[in-house]
Every structure is written in structure tokens, then in C-alpha cells.
Amino acid sequence: MQFQEITDKQWDMIEPRLPKPTRTGRPRADDRTMINAIIFVLTTGCRWIDLPVRYGSKSSAHRRFQDLQQKGIWKKILTHAIKYAHKQNK
After folding, report:
1. CA-CA distance, 90 to 79, in Å (whole number)?
2. CA–CA separation, 79 vs 14, rounded Å?
3. What is the pLDDT of residues 54-90, one digit of tens each?
4. Which of these, 66, 57, 69, 67, lies nearest to 29 by C-alpha position?
5. 76 closest CA partner among 29, 22, 14, 21
């Protein structure tokens, strides 16, 4: 499977499902960049340490993925994406 960054239409589906940034602390890395980084690793099978520089910090991307996993958000995003794709194919 070849990696492609998410489209604007895909981002419009994903963005509302992400948690809102906290008001305190250090600003988090760009959400869309982090989602693309996560999808890059999951699609290509590369190690987090081999994540291309254009996706920013590999540790930030990995932490974001773990956070989304632990909170069940990643599963909700994927479930919605599968339902959407299924609807489009009918």
C-alpha cells in the first residue's frame, strides 16, 4: 500500500473527532501534520524513528498516536472512515 497524505475532505471528517487543545501548557504540534505522520507510519510500516522530518518530531507523533489509542479516539476515526467509504462505494 502506498502512502498518501490526507485530503481536505478526509481532514474535514477527522478534525471534529479530535480532542480540543488544552488552554494551558505548551501548544501542541499541528493536528493534521500529526495525523499524516501517524498514517505514514501505519501505512509504510516504518519505525517511528524513521519518520520523515517533514512530519516533525517522531516522539510527538508517537505520543499523539498513543494518546488517541488510549482514549479510543483513533478507533472512532477509523470506524467513521470505514462507514464513510462504504457509503461512497454503494
Report:
1. 17
2. 11
3. 999 999 999 999 999 999 999 998 888 887 777 776 6
4. 57
5. 14
Q: How many CB atoms lie within 10 A of CB 11?
A: 14
DSSP annotation of 25 = S
Span between the terminal Cα atoms of the chain, in Å: 23
Residues 6+ positions from 81 with CB-CB distance below 8 Å? 10, 13, 14
Dig out the grid coordinates for 45 from the structure.
510500516
Give yes or no for a contact between 29 and 64, defined as CB atoms under 8 angstroms apart: yes
List pLDDT tens digits, range 11-60.
999 999 999 888 888 888 999 999 999 999 999 999 999 999 999 999 99
In 3D space, the residue among 49, 53, 79, 81 whose CA is nearest the CA of residue 62 turns out to be 49
What Cα–Cα distance (Å) separates residue 42 from each residue in 10, 20, 89? 17, 24, 24
